């Protein structure tokens, strides 16, 4: 399908995303620059077959670490502001803590 003439929306190409073990890898191309890092993460979780819950059923929240700079990215950051074409991200899970009841 042809698009209307005009400038193409900016994209970030050729991202390599891995899980924390490095055993699951996913190449992602042409991510819209206005997409958030959180949306990018959510978009690859199923493709990478990463669990949504830990062994006890608690939800996992994944965070991305940018290898080039060795820093964690915030889910609300735009892909265009945080990433460059060819970057590598490592996804690390965080367990969402549940409430604890006080024992008497």
Describe, in plain words, how this protein is organized in 3D.
This protein is α+β, with helices and mostly antiparallel strands and 104 residues long. The chain has a single domain (11-95), classed as Ubiquitin-like (UB roll), CATH 3.10.20.90. The protein is built from two helices and seven strands; from the N terminus they run E-E-E-E-H-E-E-H-E. A hairpin with a 5-residue loop joins strand 2 and strand 3 (25-28). The longest helix has 9 residues, at 37-45. It starts with 10 loop residues before the first strand and ends in a 9-residue tail after the last strand. Residues 1-6 and 99-104 have low confidence and may be disordered.
Layout of secondary structure:
Blueprint: E1 11-12, E2 15-19, E3 25-28, E4 31-32, H1 37-45, E5 60-66, E6 71-73, H2 79-82, E7 88-95
Parallel strand pairs: 2-7
Antiparallel strand pairs: 1-4, 2-3, 5-6, 5-7
Core attributes:
single chain, 104 residues, Ubiquitin-like (UB roll), five-stranded mixed beta sheet, two-stranded antiparallel sheet, 7 strands
Structure, briefly:
The chain is an alpha+beta fold and 104 residues long. It has a single domain, classed as Roll (Ubiquitin-like (UB roll)), CATH 3.10.20.
* Global Rg: 17 Å
Give unreliable regions as ranges.
Answer: 1-6, 99-104
User: Would you identify the CATH H-level superfamily?
Assistant: Phosphatidylinositol 3-kinase Catalytic Subunit, Chain A, domain 1
Q: Strand portion, in percent?
A: 25-35%
Structural class: alpha+beta
| Anisotropy-based shape | globular
Number of domains: 1
CATH topology: Ubiquitin-like (UB roll)
Task: Specify the biggest β-sheet.
Answer: 5 strands, mixed
